[in-house]
């Protein structure tokens, strides 16, 4: 094998997108669990002997939930949660745990080295957003004593978008720099978890084999688009030219450490330079509020990042749609949207909904993980492998999920219900990302800690032992199907009968009763012998009562938007059933 080439200098490296190192966001955004026994005050000292113990228990370097439960002294339920979480955030599509079918995750198990890296980053603390520039002045407007205070700086979600305080929340660049700084600080310890001594030379001479080096891809990626089918080792100067038919020569761990460190420093410098130039430049048009307008005119708040994520941000009092052809990356983020209807009718790997209020958000098919955080009075409809809900208030979740919904943090008055909609490509999108329609665990929410040890807020002593408030189930009599308009790909018949998830009997019976009652009312109206003037009066009265009902409906946001569009001539005024199907 040839000698590895010297890494590039900082200046050239930082401006060549294909060689810029990035932290993988997935472990930090979707992989942190508030389980106290997974968090160690000195992770390196604890995890090195734990790794040795786990390797001794396994013949193939993989462990199942029983071994994880025994070694970490956690419940078998939490051990399975660890496996499920790892399956959703591992970097390699060829990793057996990633490709395992539903029900096979435990038997496949996780590689011990991936597990110890996962356990190590449980010590990570999320970046605390900067406080509002005039938080004292608005304290009387939105007084609060909940966990929302540390994140929203005494602002309600609606005030956030109107006061243009988005810039005071962590930007993508700030979060990336924070994650890289964490990895920079802990790089030596991380390397010690993967390195092994040369036989006969003791602990002082540590090396990394190509196989161990690959595990660094769990935390790092090169370039804007990640591996794209290449192994992490092929992105390095150490193993890029290795003969696939010959075992690669191990590399000194110190050399790999120095190379990674140089790349991290170069990227941090680049992020700092770009942030400074943006702060000194003119404000973006996307920082302005969006007036109430037709969906076709809303475009200023939507962008696609060069890191493979599509952002929908700041939509207010409107509707917005993204189809599969509009999604350019593997994830989507819906941020600070208010009084709106958002449709993401596409297959993605990851989805995040953050800081939204009084909105209806439909997420098509999410193959890895969904996170909903700091939302108020939001209704989320999603088909996904897993969902995590943190610090939300008065939200309703209509779920088709293969794993238990996770409830974290300071939640209040949350409700869950079975999945309730359909669009023409839904089943195709679910198949593409591997969601199993025959399994829906919407009614098995799992509440973890009310206090998130991964945030940077101060918490009272003993708070970590308090369990988060769990969600209640929507009463079957209050359950309704959600109709996606036909021009967005919904069912042209105005129903959600194509729902791929089977409704529980109680909800199915309630839906059948509602349909029957509605049919009887419509028949009575048709058979009534009324003059034309009386028919118009009846129609007007029905519309008045219908509009009043919308304000109290569990799905009021989209329905209200439909009424607004009806008033400009889009909708047929003759039939209230066109708006909503019970």
Automatic annotation (TrEMBL):
Location of this chain's protein in the cell: Cytoplasm, Cytoskeleton, Microtubule organizing center, Centrosome; Cytoplasm, Cytoskeleton, Spindle pole
Cross-referenced SUPFAM superfamilies: C-terminal domain of adenylylcyclase associated protein
One Pfam family this sequence matches: TBCC
Domain C-CAP/cofactor C-like, chain residue ranges per copy: 299-435
InterPro entries named among the record's database cross-references: C-CAP_CF_C-like, CAP/MinC_C, CAP_C_sf, CARP_motif, TBCC1, Tubulin-bd_cofactor_C_dom
Family from the record: Belongs to the TBCC family.
Name by which UniProt lists this protein: TBCC domain-containing protein 1
Native organism: Vigna mungo (Black gram)
């Amino acid at each position: 094998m040839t000698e590895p080439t010297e890494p590039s200098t900082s200046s050239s490296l930082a401006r060549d997108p294909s060689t810029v190192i990035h932290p993988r966001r997935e472990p930090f955004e979707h992989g942190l669990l508030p389980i106290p026994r997974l968090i160690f005050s000195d992770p390196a000292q604890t995890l090195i002997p734990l790794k040795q113990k786990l390797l001794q228990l396994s013949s193939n370097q993989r462990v199942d939930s029983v071994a994880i439960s025994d070694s970490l002294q956690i419940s078998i339920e939490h051990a399975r949660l660890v496996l499920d979480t790892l399956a959703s955030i591992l970097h390699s599509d060829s990793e057996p745990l990633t490709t395992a079918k539903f029900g096979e995750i435990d038997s496949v198990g996780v590689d011990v080295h991936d597990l110890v890296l996962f356990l190590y980053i449980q010590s990570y603390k999320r970046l605390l957003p900067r406080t509002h520039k005039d938080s004292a002045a608005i304290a009387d407007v939105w007084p609060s004593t909940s966990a929302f205070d540390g994140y929203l700086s005494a602002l309600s979600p609606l005030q956030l978008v109107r006061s243009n305080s988005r810039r005071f929340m962590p930007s993508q660049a700030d979060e990336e720099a924070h994650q890289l700084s964490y990895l920079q600080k802990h790089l030596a310890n991380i390397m010690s978890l993967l390195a092994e001594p040369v036989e006969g030379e003791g602990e002082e001479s540590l090396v990394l084999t190509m196989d161990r080096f690959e595990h660094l891809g769990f935390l790092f990626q090169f370039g804007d688009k990640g591996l794209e089918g290449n192994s992490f080792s092929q992105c390095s100067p150490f193993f890029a030219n290795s003969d696939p038919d010959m075992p690669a020569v191990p590399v000194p761990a110190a050399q790999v450490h120095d190379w990674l460190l140089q790349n991290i420093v170069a990227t941090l410098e680049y992020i700092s330079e770009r942030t400074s130039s943006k702060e000194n430049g003119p404000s973006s048009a996307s920082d302005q509020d969006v007036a109430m307008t037709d969906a076709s005119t809303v475009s200023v708040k939507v962008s696609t990042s060069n890191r493979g994520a599509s952002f929908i941000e700041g939509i207010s009092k409107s509707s917005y749609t993204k189809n599969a052809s509009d999604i350019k990356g593997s994830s989507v983020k819906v941020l600070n949207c208010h009084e709106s209807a958002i449709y993401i009718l596409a297959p993605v790997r990851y989805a995040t909904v953050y800081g939204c209020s009084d909105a209806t958000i439909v997420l098509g098919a999410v193959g890895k993980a969904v996170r909903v955080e700091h939302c108020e009075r939001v209704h989320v409809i999603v088909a996904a492998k897993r969902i995590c809900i943190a610090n939300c208030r008065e939200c309703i979740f209509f779920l088709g999920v293969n794993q238990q919904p996770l409830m974290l943090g300071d939640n209040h008055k949350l409700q869950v219900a079975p999945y309730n909609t359909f669009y023409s490509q839904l089943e195709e999108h679910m198949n593409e990302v591997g969601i199993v329609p025959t399994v829906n665990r919407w009614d098995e929410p799992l509440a973890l800690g009310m206090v998130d040890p991964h945030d940077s807020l101060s918490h009272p002593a003993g708070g970590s032992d308090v369990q988060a408030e769990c969600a209640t189930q929507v009463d079957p009599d209050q359950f309704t199907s959600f109709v996606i308009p036909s021009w967005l790909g919904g069912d042209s018949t105005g129903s959600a009968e194509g729902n791929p998830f089977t409704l529980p009997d109680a909800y199915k019976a309630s839906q059948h009763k509602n349909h029957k009652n509605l049919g009887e009312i419509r028949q009575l109206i048709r058979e009534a012998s009324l003059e034309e003037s009386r028919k118009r009066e009846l129609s007007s009265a029905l519309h008045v009562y219908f509009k009043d009902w919308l304000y109290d409906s569990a799905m009021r946001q989209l329905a209200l938007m439909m009424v607004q569009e009806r008033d400009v001539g889009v909708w047929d005024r003759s039939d209230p059933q066109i708006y909503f199907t019970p």
